[in-house]
Write a structure and sequence with these properties.
The complex is a heterodimer of chains A (171) and B (235). With 171 residues, chain A is mainly alpha-helical. Chain A has helices at residues 4-32, 37-47, 55-66, 70-80, 87-101, 109-125, 143-154. The longest helix of chain A has 29 residues, at 4-32. The termini of chain A are far apart. The chains are: A mainly alpha (171), B mainly alpha (235).
Chain lengths: 171, 235
């Protein structure tokens, strides 16, 4: 039978663990600033390795992405990863912004900036800070290559005046 | 005439059992209830829901909120509402001292977040409300009220600030107008808002703030008074 002092120690230990867990959750929330309840719950489950994306929506997104329907693709990817915690899905969203904003004559700066912001977030949530995708339909299969291409898209220099630029391949 | 206890006497009414139950209740309150209450206040105090996009924003306390929280803790100690020596002292068990430390840290965080939630986020109004808090707390420390009056004073301070921010200012800056705004504007005839800017959050923020302030006041009321029963783990 537990003694009274033993039960006090048990209660205090339980309270301590509970307080530390709750405190950590609060610090995580204020540090990560989730904007929706889905992002909040997704972030918490991701931090314990229990976050899963909606695979069917992800497949839909891939199909749209490969047929150049970027708005539809982003909508499906957002449904697949509502908490924005899956690095691969966020990589594809960034890639869709890049492909939509890329042009033979000029690039859409707004879409390029969105690509950069999404890729930055994808790298943030990726384990080890690096993303590598095995997709033979992609020209750029790593976060490093995608980041460099986005940076090139956002840079304006004398090479923009080169008329041969219209013949370059799409990333 | 003294009576001897019989086999049919209810055992729970004996002296030591009541003392043990009181001691256990104290441990539960100090180790579980108070930290949970104050951490919930610390969590809810910075929560805002934007009026337009309905997005969650978690605002950490400003530096001024931290200063005011420290001043409030000082006032709580001076008035005997908070007794740090009851929560932490050398002759207590290390685990009991750790519990006490958690209560003190969470109380400080909660106090900072209560100031955060009852103060406008920016501009001249924020300065005015912060000054109002500072003077009121200074006055409270100087007056040195007892525990009961200190809690009453906190109800007035935070209740007043809550009404100003979430009822008066929210109504005055409500883009859709409303009865409260019309009544206030009639009462303040001839006065214009001029350059005073304020951005009203979504109404749900007000409800969260209300329960946050209420929970904080409940937590302050539950802070342990001077111990009459020794700790379970100190025996």
């Amino acid at each position: 039978m537990p003694t009274l002092a033993g039960s006090g120690t048990l209660i205090r230990s339980f309270g301590l663990v509970l307080s530390l867990a709750y405190g950590s959750l609060i610090v995580w929330t204020y540090a990560n600033q989730p904007r929706t309840m889905a992002e909040m719950t997704g972030g918490i489950t991701a931090s314990v390795g229990a976050y899963r994306i909606d695979q069917a929506s992800f497949e839909d997104g891939l199909r749209y992405f490969h047929s150049d329907k970027f708005l539809e693709a982003r909508s499906a990817f957002a449904r697949a990863d509502p908490a924005k915690q899956d690095a691969t899905t966020q990589f594809y969203i960034a890639y869709s912004f890049l492909r939509q904003g890329w042009g033979r004559v000029y690039n859409d700066a707004t879409l390029m900036q969105q690509a950069q912001a999404t890729l930055d977030h994808a790298i943030e949530v990726a384990p080890g800070g690096r993303i590598s995708v095995k997709d033979p339909n992609l020209t750029l299969t790593s976060s490093d290559e995608l980041r460099a291409e986005i940076a090139r898209g956002l840079t304006h220099d004398s090479s923009d005046l080169n008329p041969l630029k219209v013949f370059r391949g799409r990333p | 005439m003294a009576t001897t206890p019989t086999a049919s006497s209810p055992p729970l009414l004996t002296g030591p059992t009541i003392v043990d139950r009181a001691a256990r209740a104290r441990v539960v309150r100090e180790s579980i209830m108070l930290p949970l209450i104050f951490l919930t206040v610390a969590f809810g105090g910075g929560l805002r829901v934007t009026a337009v996009s309905r997005q969650l924003v978690f605002l950490p306390p400003s530096l001024m909120a931290l200063v005011l929280a420290l001043l409030l803790l000082g006032a709580l100690v001076r008035t005997g509402t908070l007794l740090p020596e009851v929560l932490m002292r050398p002759d207590r068990a290390p685990l009991a001292n750790a519990s006490g430390l958690i209560v003190l840290i969470s109380l400080f965080a909660a106090a900072a977040q209560v100031f955060n939630t009852t103060t406008p986020e920016s501009g001249l109004l924020q300065f005015i409300v912060n000054l109002f808090f500072f003077l009121l707390l200074w006055n409270t420390v100087a007056a040195q009220p007892d525990r009961r009056r200190m809690v009453s004073s906190l109800i007035v301070i935070f209740g007043g600030a809550f009404v100003v921010k979430y009822v008066v200012l929210a109504a005055l800056y409500d883009p859709n107008g409303g009865l409260t705004k019309r009544v206030l504007m009639t009462m303040l005839e001839g006065v214009t808002l001029g350059g005073l800017t304020y951005q009203s959050p979504a109404p749900v923020t007000g409800y969260v703030a209300f329960f946050t302030v209420l929970l904080f006041l409940i937590g302050v009321t539950l802070l342990p008074a001077r111990a009459v029963v020794p700790d379970l783990d100190d025996r």
